[in-house]
Amino acid sequence: MASNERSQRRKSSMEEPPYLSGDAEFRVLLFGRSGRSQFSLANSILGTDVFSDELCNITESQRHRSEAFERKLAVVNTPNLSEYQASQKELRRVFKLSVCMSSPGPYVVLFAFDLNNISPSAVSILELVTKHFGDSILNHMMVVVCHEEEKEDSALEEKVKTNRDFRELIEKCGRRYHLFNERKARRDEKISRQLLGKMDDMVRENGCRFYSNHQYQEAEERIQKEECFMMKGRKKEMLTKRKELESRYTCEGLEKELQSRYTGEGLEKELESRYTGEGLEKELQSRYTGEGLEKELESRYTGEGLEKELESRYTGEGLEKELLQFETRIRVENREKAERKISEVLGFTLTAVDYAAAVGKGAALGALCGAVVGFEGMAVGAAVGAVVGGFIGGAASAAWGYLTNTAAQMNRR
Predict the structure, then answer these.
(1) Between the CA of residue 241 and those of 235, 236, 329, what are the distances in Å?
(2) Of 2, 106, 184, 385, which one is least surrounded by beta carbons within 10 A?
(3) Rounded to an integer, what distance in angstroms lies between the CA atom of residue 238 and that of residue 34?
(4) Residue 47, SS3?
(5) What is the spatial distance between Cα 328 and Cα 258, in angstroms, rounded to a whole number?
(6) 56 φ, ψ to 5°?
(7) Residue 18 to residues 51, 71, 207, Cα–Cα distance (Å)
(8) CA 105, CA 74: separation in Å to the nearest integer?
């Protein structure tokens, strides 16, 4: 009996997404068909207003973090794709930044649009996303229809299901969709919890794993390397900060703080700077009289009360807490800088190396074949071989990307 109970507990923990049982972030990648609804949805998921009600678009991907609904959250918002009139080069830049910001991969991808703005362009936007991220991202995607209607969801479902474009959209996403009432969500967090519950169910269906492919894997690997490089560069800064904190919070630093703030001249100066003459006397008499004043002063500035306050702030736990806060801030700064830097070169280096290798091999083979007819034949053969190698290298690179992406998805199932 006890063995069965332990088995059930193990099974339950294995089926629980890591962000619900540990310190892992619940990473959400959010694409929008309508800017205002997209940002209202982000606010509801994060449990705080990071975007204003008037905001309709952003110029580049943004990530916001919070702790709400018993988990750590990170939501990456992309620009409103329905209004994004940029070149393919700019669009790739937006997508690459969103990859780096949601690396090592999002648990959930949401495609949000307004109830009254369902059009054929919604499907074309989804095609843009899958073209860059791969078709397998659809396994982690849910369509969210945002609205402010007072009608029951059942009546609204009938309305959207009659829309051909909506039906095509959800078919591509495994028929996963959610009607999200923005107005009710602002008043009742239960609306947000219902959406998060559906998202958790989808994560469980995907084996409690986040979405990843060769692009995410490359991004994460390079981001971590860049972080290590940055951390080495800031090692001196961190050592200096540690020494500064240790001098402030231990031994001599503590003694000086005690003497200057809470005894003799230090205490008198503090009180005199805040209240002087008649003002000080009135303040003391109005706030504390007789026994009450004595107790307050004794608990704040002498004996056990003083010791507890200072020990908690200036020794042991207080020192470690401030050191941890400083190191965490450094790591967050390094991570964000590394993400932006890698997003600018993501996918370029690998492709350039592949092409260079293919061109070099093609040129060598062409030169070898042309050597039969002499030096001029070698030169012509090398040139032709380089061109052919370049074409073959491009096809090989695309094929390799497809194969690694497919293999990554198979491994995650």
Answers:
(1) 10, 9, 13
(2) 2
(3) 44
(4) coil
(5) 29
(6) -120, -15
(7) 28, 10, 11
(8) 11
